[in-house]
Structures are given as C-alpha cells and as structure tokens.
Amino acid sequence: MKFDYYDSAVFKEILSESYKLDLYKYNNEISYFESKYKFKKTKFNLPFQFYQPKDYFEEKGIKNFITLLKERDFAYFHSIGKIDSLEGTKVAKNPILSLTKDTHPENNYSRRTKEYIKNYSKYMKENDINISITKNTQDLKRFYKHLAKSYTRKHRMIFQPYEIYKNLFNDQGFLIIATTSEKLLGGGFFIKDSKTLHYNWGSYENLNKFSTATSILDFSIKYAWENNYDYFDFGSTPLNDSNLLFSKTKFGADPLDVYLYSNFEKRNIDLNDHYKTLRFIFSLNPISINRIISKIVVPYLV
C-alpha cells in the first residue's frame, strides 16, 4: 500500500503554494520540503498529517532516506507502519480500512454501529436529511465556515487555511455533506487517490437522535467500496484521543501506528494537550479574525 497522489507533482505543488514551502530533489530519486521562512531549518517528506505507508519508502529505497537523515541537518519523516531498518518513535495512529469487492463494508462494522446506521437512516427519511457528494465551490465555502466555527468554539484549535481546501478541491478533493432544507449539518473533506480514498477533515453538528459524522462516514465508506477503492484512509489520530480512535475503528479500520524518524529532538505537538491558554484565547476571538490568524500562522507551524 502506498499513496500515489501524495507523491504526485500536482499535490506537492499544492502543498508548496498553500504552506509556503520549497521542494527539493535528493539524489534524483526522492524529494523533500523546506519552509520558505529561512529561520525554519527542518527538512521533511510531507507536512502535517499527510503520511505515506512504509511500502512507499521501501519502494523508493530506504537507503535514500537514511542518507538524507545523515547528510541534512534537522531532517525527519513519518511512515504508517514501522520501517524495521530504522529507529523510530510512535507518534500517532492512522486507521486504515481494507475494502474487498466480495465483502460489503457493513460486514466490517461493529454490531452496535450497524444498529445505529439503521436507526440514523430511518431518522434521515423522517426528517428530510440528505447526504450528497459535491464539487460546488459554494458548498466548500459553507463547509469551511462551519469548520471554522467548530474549531474555534468547540475544539479550540487553529485550523487549516482556506487555500489548502480550495486548491485540493480544484484537483482531487471533494465534499460529502449532510443537509436539511434549511441548513448544513456538517461534512467531510475527501481526496481521491489511485487505490485509496482519504478522509482528511470533517466538521459536524450532531442532533439528539442522529450522528452526522457517523452517517457521513458510512456513506463515504460505501462510496469508496462501490467505486473499487482498496483502502479507506481515516487519517491521523493522536495517541491519547481514544474517543476519536474509536469513532474510526468502529467501522472495522485497522489502527496502524505512525512512526517518526528524525536526526534531531523533534517535539511532537498534541493540540489536545498543548497550548491550552493560547487555545482558550483563540476560542474567544471572532471567527473572522481566526481565519486570518490561521492563514498567517499555519505556514509557520509546518
């Protein structure tokens, strides 16, 4: 398993533009990023939680990455699954659901999840809730407004700038949203890869008897299965966030370990625990101000 789109020139150009990064070739075989901000000295394969499985590194040649760690100061990279020839530190989980054409994906769900899905489907019909796929820019703007509010008031976390969503949306990104006639209940942002459907970001409003997140993920997994994807990638999950991990593994995903390989003491920032005072202040800001803050600050955090 490897993620072809994450290794594509188009994707790397989007990352470079959105996060203000320079891309370099190494030994004409692999590439790495550096920030355009010169005080940032790190070199890395991919930013944030865009991870490659270990098969990618083995195919590219582990020796190239070992040499990179030896020859470049402040270099690091992550892999989904442990690369046996390197000493790494476990820093996150990344659940992956394997899909096979002869097995309906609901067969992978926990018994209780199947029951909830059945009840939610009934609730959707009774309350005129619709789940749909969209590539409409207006829907993207509505989703981002929903996400910005949720991250500000509920999660108290800085969020990705609109540019990364827009640029990915104009290529392989798309939304799956839940709506009523009056409002957007939430949505998930997904990226199409050759054999994998990536679930990258979500923002949801749950009702008393209805989980928007569960229903959208159920819809998206079945979409991936119906469109012959081999894997559904649930994305990165902090090691200490058992609730978030359960929300993904209840669909039958394998909670694979994410490892960090670094030639310096790299701090693994967990926004569930770190910067609590700053996050509290952030949560009090007008959402419009936080959108500006995210656009300025996130490239510095890469």
Walk me through the topology.
Elements: H1 9-19, E1 21-26, E2 30-35, E3 43-44, E4 52-53, H2 54-60, H3 62-71, E5 75-80, E6 89-98, H4 111-126, E7 130-134, H5 137-155, H6 162-169, E8 173-179, E9 184-192, E10 196-204, H7 212-226, E11 231-233, E12 237-238, H8 242-249, E13 254-262, H9 276-284, H10 287-301
Parallel strand pairs: 3-5, 4-5, 10-11
Antiparallel strand pairs: 1-2, 2-3, 5-13, 6-11, 6-12, 6-13, 7-8, 8-9, 9-10
Helix pairs in contact: 1-6
In words, what does this structure look like?
- This protein has 302 residues and is α+β, with helices and mostly antiparallel strands.
- The protein has 2 domains: 111 residues, no CATH class; 161 residues, Gcn5-related N-acetyltransferase (GNAT) (Aminopeptidase, 3-Layer(aba) Sandwich).
- The chain is 39% helix and 25% strand.
- It contains 10 helices and 13 strands.
- Strands 1, 2, 3, 4, 5, 6, 7, 8, 9, 10, 11, 12 and 13 form a 13-stranded mixed beta sheet that branches.
- A hairpin with a 3-residue loop joins strand 1 and strand 2.
- The protein starts with 8 loop residues before the first helix and ends with a helix.
Q: What's the gist of this structure?
A:
The chain is α+β, with helices and mostly antiparallel strands.
* C-alpha end-to-end distance: 26 Å
Given this structure, which CATH class of the largest domain is correct? Alpha Beta
The SSE string, one letter per element, is HEEEEHHEEHEHHEEEHEEHEHH
Unreliable stretches (pLDDT < 50, length at least 5) are none
Q: What coarse outline follows from CA principal-axis ratios?
A: globular
Largest sheet: 13 strands, mixed
Per DSSP, the total helix count is 10
The percentage helix is 25-40%
- The CATH topology annotation of the largest domain reads as Aminopeptidase
Name given to the CATH homologous superfamily of the largest domain: Gcn5-related N-acetyltransferase (GNAT)
